[in-house]
Design goal:
30 helices, 15 strands, alpha+beta
């Protein structure tokens, strides 16, 4: 065997020198199969073949072959990738050695493809190399190789590279996770969040926030807890990203950690600029938890008003009246009148979605007049129809105008899409200052509207069943300017913007139709004017000046470059400027964003004003233009405001 292998070794080298790749690979493939165990041979033969394989892989042979492979892409060397892999371990090591020589190695992509072609043998050698202190670019190349093999069993090797603190290596691991995708992507990113450096943590938090899962919320809270417990001062940009990321996870535990974070900031252990995003997130989480706590879930999927004492009493009166009248008709032997009464009342209760009562009255109808088959069948059909339609007649009567506006089919879809919430007297439904994109339809009870004027609370108006509230925040991007409280037991329906998008699939005009209906509803800005409430804490001055605006994203990171806009007015507490925005939904995304306005004045001096966007209102005089209302983080001194006015108005 050894003599035969020596002869074969000489043949392979001759074939290689003559560029006879086919015959050379024919022999090398046999050697490769024996060494890797594909072709079963006893240990002594496998040892001889392995030694022969190493003897073939001489340095000059490998250099010659790899030079050809890298430089020549013609069909004449098409067999080379197979041949180089079949030479065995030393060939794979040689490819890695070439990659190690330089970050700008010639033929890097072709070498990576060759290593991918090497399959399990390449993975085995890469695993050994990963234990060493190799150059960052070689580790990145090896991660690419493993990733392109598309074998989940190799992922632990890729994940192991997160132990390297070099950001470039960790970034390559993350890119590998993104490229691989699949159902395990989120959990892999969550695990990576524990190991990557702070700048990459921020990138991961933003990515994980796009499709939030429970595991992401747990990871964010765990990371925040870790940062709060460490002795060193945490990175404020990372903390800001975590705080923003928690907006997608309205849970009591999130509020608990935000409370700890607030305490640390107030004790001057952390950057005080974090107070603003923390307060904003707490406000959002409290609102979501409040709505979640008051959300009503009905067993039959419909909404009834049986919790309302008035409705309960009316229902009892109706039942008593039916029983009494039926008894009177029976005494007078007026079968036809009893039949008509039982029929009409059975239909009435069916339309009210009280199917148990409707069916009992139908059975009584059969007992009273078995010959009234037509009416009994008609009642059955009505009950079956009403079981399919979830809209109770009481609801339909209350919102008849809305049904006329939307049409019967769309109104049914609307009813199936809204969420029911119930509140007791004194409960807060929504608070002033919240980012609330809900439209409220009051079904029963009464609510009151209030607003802050200085340090006091001002009553504005009381609303009853059939009223709609929230059109300002629903149709334009602005924070809530009022607080809404329940005066009595209240049941209402809530329509959210994201639900509206689902309705628009079947009817693109649904928003316009709902908007038209809401034109008759209460409009808070008008209500504030009528009430005479002056809510401004400082005078607003009109000022038409070009300013430079730096807009920050939802995670507090500055945009690529500032842009020039036109300042329209300014006060100690806020400012307003105009910009062009392509769509209403893009305008809504600006709500709550941090803004920095830079006003250049004489002598090259600058006045910088910082705040958050609280309103994005269409400028109906200019198509596609919006007025951006900004609330200052800190009150601007009056002297500075006057200086601006004197500079630009003389």
């Amino acid at each position: 065997y050894e003599v035969a292998c020596q002869l074969l070794q000489r043949l392979v080298i001759l074939f290689v020198r003559d560029s006879n790749w086919h015959d050379a690979d024919h022999i090398l493939k046999a050697f490769y199969d024996i060494v890797t165990g594909t072709c079963q041979k006893k240990a002594s033969i496998r040892s001889i073949v392995s030694r022969t394989q190493r003897n073939i892989a001489q340095q000059d042979v490998l250099e010659h072959l790899y030079l050809l492979y890298i430089k020549d892409s013609s069909e004449s060397v098409g067999k080379l990738p197979d041949l180089l892999v079949h030479i065995g371990k030393l060939s794979i090591i040689h490819a890695l050695s070439i990659l190690r020589e330089s970050e700008e190695c010639t033929g890097r992509d072709r070498l990576i493809q060759l290593l991918v072609h090497g399959g399990g043998l390449s993975a085995q050698i890469i695993h050994e190399y990963m234990q060493n202190d190799e150059p960052w670019f070689l580790i990145c190349d090896m991660i690419q190789v493993l990733c392109q093999m598309k074998d989940d069993a190799l992922y632990p090797l890729i994940e192991g590279a997160l132990r390297f603190r070099d950001q470039r290596i960790q970034h390559e691991v993350l890119m590998c996770i993104f490229r691989a995708g699949g159902p395990g992507k989120t959990l892999r990113l969550v695990h990576a969040l524990q190991h990557v450096v702070d700048p990459l943590k921020i990138v991961l938090i933003i990515e994980l926030g796009k499709k939030p899962q429970a595991a992401v919320g747990d990871a964010l809270r765990s990371l925040l807890n870790e940062l709060l417990n460490q002795d060193a001062k945490a990175n404020p940009e990372l903390l800001s990203a975590i705080v923003t990321g928690l907006q997608k996870f309205p849970e009591e535990s999130s509020l608990k950690y935000l409370g700890r974070l607030t305490a640390e900031i107030q004790n001057d252990k952390l950057d005080r600029t974090l107070l603003i995003p923390v307060a904003e997130t707490r406000l959002m989480l409290e609102a979501e938890l409040r709505h979640k706590a008051h959300k009503r879930i009905d067993d039959e999927g419909g909404v009834s008003f049986t919790d309302d004492p008035v409705v309960q009493q009316n229902s009892m009166n109706k039942v008593c009246q039916v029983e009494q009248l039926v008894a009177e008709f029976a005494a007078d032997r007026s079968i036809e009148q009893a039949t008509d009464l039982l029929f009409s009342k059975s239909v009435e209760y069916a339309r009210e979605k009280d199917f148990e009562t409707a069916e009992r009255l139908r059975d009584r109808l059969f007992e009273a007049n078995p010959g009234a088959i037509d009416k009994i069948l008609e009642v059955d059909n009505i009950i079956a129809f009403e079981r399919q339609s979830r809209v109770p007649i009481s609801y339909l009567e209350l919102w008849r105008k809305l049904q006329n506006t939307l049409g019967v089919q769309l109104f049914e879809q609307f009813y199936n899409s809204v969420e029911a919430e119930t509140y007791r007297a004194g409960d807060i439904i929504t608070k002033e200052g919240e980012r609330d994109d809900r439209l409220y339809f009051i079904n029963t009870g009464e609510i009151s509207l209030h607003c802050k004027t200085g340090s006091s609370d001002t009553f504005l108006k009381r609303l009853r069943a059939g009223s709609v509230v929230g059109r300002e925040q629903f149709f334009t991007a602005s924070v809530s300017t009022i607080t809404m409280k329940a005066v009595s037991f209240v049941e209402l329906h809530v329509l959210r913007r994201e639900v509206l998008a689902g309705l628009e699939v079947d009817c693109q005009e649904v928003e316009n139709k709902i908007h038209d209906y809401c034109l008759g509803a209460i409009y808070v800005p008008d209500l504030l004017k009528i009430s005479g409430v002056d809510r401004r804490n400082s005078v607003r001055y009109k000022l038409s000046v070009k300013i430079k605006i730096q807009l920050f994203d939802a995670y507090g990171r500055p945009g690529l470059r500032p842009f020039v806009s036109l300042l329209q007015d300014v006060s100690q507490g806020g400012l307003c400027f105009s910009i062009g925005i392509s769509s209403k939904e893009n305008a809504r995304l600006l709500l709550g964003r941090k803004v920095q306005a830079d006003v250049e004045i004489a002598g090259g001096n600058h006045v910088k004003l910082e705040g958050s966007i609280v309103g994005v209102v269409p400028d109906y005089c200019v198509t596609g233009s919006y007025r951006i209302n900004v609330k200052m983080f800190e009150t601007v001194p009056q002297a500075e405001i006057k200086y601006l006015l004197n500079t630009f108005t003389g």
